[in-house]
Structures are given as C-alpha cells and as structure tokens.
Amino acid sequence: MRLNNLFKNPVLRESFNDMLGPSIGIFTWSIVLNLAIIKTGFAVLNTIVMSLAVYAGSAQLASIPLMNGNFPIWIIFFTTMVINSRFIVYSAAIAPHFKDLSFFQRAILGYLNGDISFAVFTRKYPTATTDSKKEVYQYFLGTATMNWVVWQLGLVVALVFGIYIPNEWNFAFAGTLVLICLIAPNLKTPKEITIGIVSILVTMFTINLPYRLGILSTVLAAMCTAFLIEQVQRKNV
Amino acid sequence: MSEIYFWSCILTLSFVTFFTRSFFLTVGAKLKLSPSVRNLIQYAPTGALIAIVIPELLFEKDALTKSYQFAMQPVQIYSSISTIVIFYFSKSMVLSLTTGMVVLTLLSKYWQ
Fold it and tell me: Looking at A45-54, A171-180, A203-212, B62-71, which range is the least confident one?
C-alpha cells in the first residue's frame, strides 16, 4: 500500500482517529517510564534497544532493577512472564478474529498487541463479527501500529530532554506512580479490594525472599484469594 | 552488567513479549481456555504490580545487608495518595502523574 493511500483508507483513518485521545496517555507514560529507566543509570543505547525489541512498559520497568542488580536471567524471565500474563488473556480475546490469517501474520499482530490498542480494538470489535475480515485486520493493525509509533516517540523525547531533568527530582518514582494508576482501576469491588489487601500483606511478609520470589508468592496469593472468594460466593447464592 | 548478560536479557524479554502477547494466536491457537482459568488469570497482574510497588512505599533497603526493612515512606505515600485521588476524579493519567510528582517534590524539599 502506498503511503498517500494509507490516509485515504477509511478503516485505517478511523483506527488512527480512535487512538488519538489514548495516544496522549501512551506518549506521557512512555516519556515517564523511559526517563525512569535512564535515571536508574541504564545506558542510552541499552534503553533504545530495549524499547524497540522488548516493547512492554511495565515488564521493562520491573526488569530494570533486576538487570542493574545482575539477577539470574531465569528470575527476569519469570518476573516479566508473570507481569505479562495479562497479554495471554488478551490474545485469547482477539484470536477468534484472526484465525484465518497465516501463522506469520498472527505472530506479528500478537507482538504488536499493547494494553491500550487492545482496549480500543475490543471497544469496536467486542466479539467476532460478520464484518469483512480485511477491515478487522486493518483496524487492528492501525491501532496497534499507532500505539507502537507513539511509544517510540515518547522514548525520543525522554532521550532528548532527559539530561535537563535534575536527579534530585526523583523522576524514577514517576514509574511507580504509573504502576499505581494501572493498579487502582482494578481495586473497585469488595472482592477486588480484598485481593488487593491480601496482596499487600503477602508482599510485606515475603519481601526478603531470595530472587524476588515475593512477586510469585503475591501473584499466587491474589489468584487463590479470588478463587476462595468465588467459592464462598457460590455457596451463599 | 556485561554485554553478554545484557543481550541475553533482551533476547529473553523479547521472547516473553512475543510469547505472552501472541500465545493464543500462535502456539496456543488450538487450545481452548476454560472460563474459570481465564477468570483467575485476570488477577495475576494486580498481584504482580502490587508486589513491585509496595517496597517503594513501605520499605527501606538496608545498604549493608541488601535486605528490606519495614519503614513507612511518608513522602512517597502522600504522593501516591494524591495521584490516586486525582486519577479517580479526572481519569487523566497526565494530570494525576503531574500532581503526584509535584507533591513528591514539594514534600521532599520543604517537609523533610
């Protein structure tokens, strides 16, 4: 497809349009997160390589202290696997739309499947539709590509302006604040709040376990709590 | 951090991104996820993110033993609370992050 035709394609234009608002969030998050990474003393070239190849915000943020501390690779593998486990669920949700595509095409779509573009995509296509497959494919590609481009633009801004931000600003804490903004919407119902409290307590008691195994303990505790609450609720109905 | 270590990490992390995001599109295309498992998986990220955030708010790292000691971080806690409150009412991440960082900067400069 030629570039000037790209913006004439109605499906792609619609996908870009739907991503405009969310892009502001992606952009700032990328700037803050990449600044936080640079401020931990991570080399500029390493930060670029990581952003291009890994392309997974919270997993990057979580693995930086592990990498700076020369933790064993299996710990890094395990920690990011757990943090990224939500994407497995996302992939289950979008898979029915794309089952006719080739393996390679599906792999590319999967790799580009970010949090926000996923949310935008599923708002338009909540379940497999009768719409032309080509349109669904183009719409997904449009939102996901925009997510990727805006994310990398945030990295450029962070690299260019990073040196003007003094270290005493404690910019690295902004990364923690981003994570808090991601946790907060998941703690609304009494059930979710209980899961949150259990997670906090388990973290506090397992924090000094070797290799950050406290993260696994907390994940398992969160899932067990959800399971138990559901069992109790089912009995009381 | 050695070169080999860095590139092994990048390779590992790229694999994790690819594997998780495309799981049911590629390797697991033939699998059917039971609804109860899918339901429980959704709580995993909350647990993981809480486990990453809590040490920043409630603990101090002992420089000598490298272990975490319980110690409330009031500046970080107030900054987080202000971020959550603004995020709850405005739904804007930009606004809430700015607020949180301003609170953090002011408190650490004039209060402690």
Answer: A171-180
**3-class SS at A71?**
coil
Inter-chain touch A183–B104, beta carbons under 8 Å: no
Identify the residue whose tokens are 């609804």: B35
Query: Using an 8 Å Cβ cutoff, are A82 and B18 in contact?
Result: no
Does the distance separating the beta carbons of B50 and A196 come in below 8 Å?
yes
In chain A, which ranges are E strands? none
Q: Which of A24, A40, A78, A88 to mutate to test the interface with B (most CBs of B within 10 A)?
A: A88
pLDDT in tens, A87-130: 887 888 888 888 888 999 999 999 998 888 888 888 788 766 66
Q: How buried is A161 (Cβ within 10 angstroms: 0-12 exposed, 13-18 middle, 19+ buried)? A: exposed
| Cα separation, B74 vs B53, whole angstroms | 14
Torsions phi, psi for B66 (to 5 deg): 65, 15
